[in-house]
Amino acid sequence: MQAPENLPVVVIVEDDLYMQGILSQCLSGPFAPVVFQNGMEAFSYLQQGNIPDIIISDLNTPVLNGIQFLEQVRTSGFFSAIPFIMLSGVDNTDTRIKCLEAGADDFIVKPFNPRELEARLKIILKRAGKLVLN
């Protein structure tokens, strides 16, 4: 496992304050969450030289929605390899396919089980070589 001072950084893009709290609470501890209201704020954070270990973005956020943010990340040479999970209350096959085709590594439907979210994050980070699991 990684040392506590070297927790994997998770950028969370979520405009709903309640969901921000849930995500921050369930991910704090094994991860270091950094929360933004929209994709534009998160992309600005990346452009300032902050490279998170993984990104979780809601599909429907203001200013720059989840798909637009994902496309910005994937077309950037600096950020294109950052694992990306799309989170949404929309549960239909077309939406999931659109997100996966745009480059999302996973798609999680709200409401979600916090333990499942943590497990998915750990698996993706392990595959990316950013986390060693015992």
Q: What is the terminal separation in angstroms?
A: 7 Å
Low-confidence stretches: none
Structural class: alpha/beta
Radius of gyration, rounded? Answer: 14 Å
Strand order of the largest sheet: 2-1-3-4-5
**With helices defined by DSSP (H or I, 4 residues minimum), what is the helix count?**
5
Q: What's the β-strand tally?
A: 5
Helix content: 40-55%
Describe the model.
- By secondary structure, the protein is of the alpha/beta class.
- The protein has a single domain, classed as Response regulator (Rossmann fold, 3-Layer(aba) Sandwich).
- Helices cover 40% and strands 18% of the residues.
- It has a five-stranded parallel β-sheet with strand order 2-1-3-4-5, with helices on both faces.
- Helix 3 links the parallel strand 3 and strand 4.
- Helix 2 packs parallel to helix 3.
- The N and C termini lie close together (7 Å).
- The mean pLDDT is 93.
- One of its GO terms (molecular function) is phosphorelay sensor kinase activity.
- This is Response regulator transcription factor.
- It comes from Panacibacter microcysteis.
- Pfam families: Response_reg.
- Keywords: Phosphoprotein.
